[in-house]
Design a protein that fits this description.
It comes from Photobacterium iliopiscarium. Keywords: Acyltransferase, Membrane, Transferase, Transmembrane, Transmembrane helix. There is one protein chain. By secondary structure, the protein is an all-alpha fold. It has one domain (8-324). The protein is 73% helix and 0% strand. α1 packs across α10 (232-255), α1 runs parallel beside α12 and α7 (148-163) packs antiparallel against α8 (172-193).
Length: 334
């Protein structure tokens, strides 16, 4: 499985780079630095049309093999250790820092918001919250029956949820589920059908690149959709973009770009840390060095958010502090 999907590290790398860019540029924009607001909005819409669906899709690819390897109970425990545990730890750590330093940041986070994490996830951590409960849902659905027919039915159901989400109860956590869960189950189905290698050719990459550019142009410039606009059209846009990223990642994996693969392998750590790193650098650049150039802020902010996150992870490995990212109480998944 790992050899069959060695391109996934590259897809994660591309995805996390987009996540970091999106949050860094948003921070710069909200800080009031001069920048082309229309360009910012257009790029923001493009990124948000697919980058988080991409991560749910990639997570779904490994669900069946994980459930088969560990079984129902141990799979849930493993996801608690590796998904929900870091959600709790870093929601609290980042939240306390943001609440304490709120006068220096764009947001005004309260301690009440920080400690409401069990029912109202905040900041980037919503992804881990929704992903954990998606794993649990999938485990119950497929514990006995993993037939293709059932998987297709589940994908169809959650596709309808996605397409008609505007007609469903507008509850924050549920809104996050409406917009992302379907891509996790599509990932499960794709592995079941064993059809992903059809995207491994250069021809497929070229075709998908053209479709990606054309669809994003139509979505952003002709129809003037925004990041919150979701329905049938945005579903198709997301699937085209995910397919393109897969095809591109398959070609990149052939080049053996170690740094990019390393970023992909460390994508969860970067996801947990990049807001603190990126915001800290932005504040230092603006308040200490008086850097008001949005372009310089974004470039330095993205490099620093990724680079400092990786350095911090290596520091935790060296000094045996990995309990910050993974629960130390369970060893059953070894």
């Amino acid at each position: 499985m790992s050899k069959h999907l060695n391109w996934v590290d590259y897809a994660k790398a591309l995805g996390i780079i987009l996540v970091v860019y999106g949050h860094v540029s948003e921070g710069v924009f909200n800080a009031g630095m001069a920048m082309n607001s229309q360009l910012y909005t257009n790029i923001d819409t493009m990124i948000y049309s697919f980058h988080m669906p991409l991560f749910f899709f990639l997570s779904g690819l490994f669900f069946t093999s994980s459930l088969t390897k560990r079984g129902f109970k141990q799979n849930i425990i493993n996801k608690f250790d590796t998904v929900f545990y870091p959600y709790i730890i870093w929601s609290i750590l980042q939240g306390i820092i943001e609440a304490t330093l709120s006068k220096y940041t764009n947001g005004h986070v309260t301690y009440t918001e920080v400690f409401s994490l069990l029912w109202e996830p905040r900041a980037q951590f919503w992804f881990l919250y929704v992903l954990f409960f998606t794993f649990i849902t999938a485990s119950f659905l497929f514990i006995k029956n993993r037939s293709t027919k059932l998987m297709i039915s589940v994908v169809c159901f959650f596709s309808l949820v996605y397409i008609f989400q505007s007609d469903l109860p507008p509850i924050y956590v549920l809104n996050l589920c409406y917009a992302h869960v379907v891509f996790f189950f599509i990932g499960i189905l794709i592995i079941q059908l064993d059809c992903i290698n059809s995207l491994s050719s250069v021809k497929a990459l070229v075709i998908l690149f053209i479709l990606f550019i054309a669809s994003q142009y139509w979505f952003v410039f002709i129809e003037n959709f925004h990041r919150i606009d979701r329905g049938f059209c945005s579903f198709i846009i997301a699937m085209i973009a995910i397919s393109f990223i897969i095809a591109l990642s398959m070609q990149l994996s052939k080049l053996n770009i170690r740094l990019l693969a390393y970023i992909g392998q460390s994508s969860l750590y970067i996801y947990l840390l990049h807001i603190l790193m990126g915001s800290g650098i932005r504040i230092i650049l603006q308040k200490v060095f008086h850097v008001e150039s949005a372009t310089i802020q974004i470039i330095i902010g993205c490099i620093a958010a990724i680079g400092l996150s990786l350095l911090f992870v290596e520091f935790t490995k060296k000094f045996h502090l990995l309990f910050l990212f993974k629960a130390p109480i369970n060893r059953s998944q070894k």
